[in-house]
UniProtKB/TrEMBL annotation:
Coiled coil: none annotated. Keywords: Signal. This is TRAP transporter solute receptor, TAXI family. It comes from the Bacteria. Residues 1-22 form the signal peptide. PANTHER family: SLL1037 PROTEIN (PTHR42941). It holds the Pfam family NMT1_3.
Amino acid sequence: MKIKAVLAAAVATTIIAGPVAAQDKSDWPQSFTIGTASQGGTYFAYGSGWANYMAETLGISGGAEITGGPMQNMALVHTGDLNFGLTTMGPARESLEGNSPLAPGMAMDNVCAMFPMYQTPFSVTTLSSSGITSIADIPDGAKIGFGPAGSTSDTYFPKMMETLGVNFERRNGSWADLGTQLQDGLIDVVAFAAGIPIPAVSQLEVQTDVNIIGMTEEELKKITEAFPVAEFTIPASTYQSLDEPSTVVSMWNFAIANCDVSESLVYEMVKTTMENNDKMVSIHKAARTSVPENYTKNNVLPWHPGAARWFNENGYEIPADRIK
């Protein structure tokens, strides 16, 4: 039985292809699907827009599928249940090494990198009325929403909170649902890990007053020493609730493909994505860092041959031993 059958049910959003381009597509699938994450998060917005763009440009039917996020996408792409997906480097490493909680012991080594996306900042959001203005202010037993089960946030943020001495009750759900729960007073904090601006946070700002909380120098030191993350600054212009930049930590995201997907299809997708950043930014502002120079941020996954061909042709060296 394929992993897809035993994972959480997913909802597909299908996009109809545009005109067929004049090129050999004999080894292309009839359609493609990209695994994203829950609605209200950046993965869904970015992935849906990218699928639509690829369908319109390359003349192949495509769609985005709601999933549990990076860890589940690694599993679904590895088994071939999905052609493509979005993942974060931390969950990607755990999955590659056989440490995924979705399939313990299965080394998900049939997943290849396509192109860099953006960094996922880990940030905390509360209602202003809560009086919580720092991580240290979070009271014992606070109900904290960590996103969908198995997501990047759910995998790492609880451990980060424990490292910082926070005692909490764990809650899971889609980002949109957790934003509603926060607004309704059912939870105290949402620990977001998603590309910025996060749709659910932007929506919350419109409806109520929120605090977007960063980390102190001491907190940053503890977290960067203990986890595969780096310091990151959320610009004040990202959210109307920020009066100044917010310093947090982040982890890189990459688009991935099943390594057996057509080399020519992946080449055309990477070419279209990497050579049209203005279009990608129009899909989501986080795509400002979806540029070829950031290919070096992948130190985990092998490269798909189609992706590596485009990067090598354009002066971004990927050695043969890093290509699947």
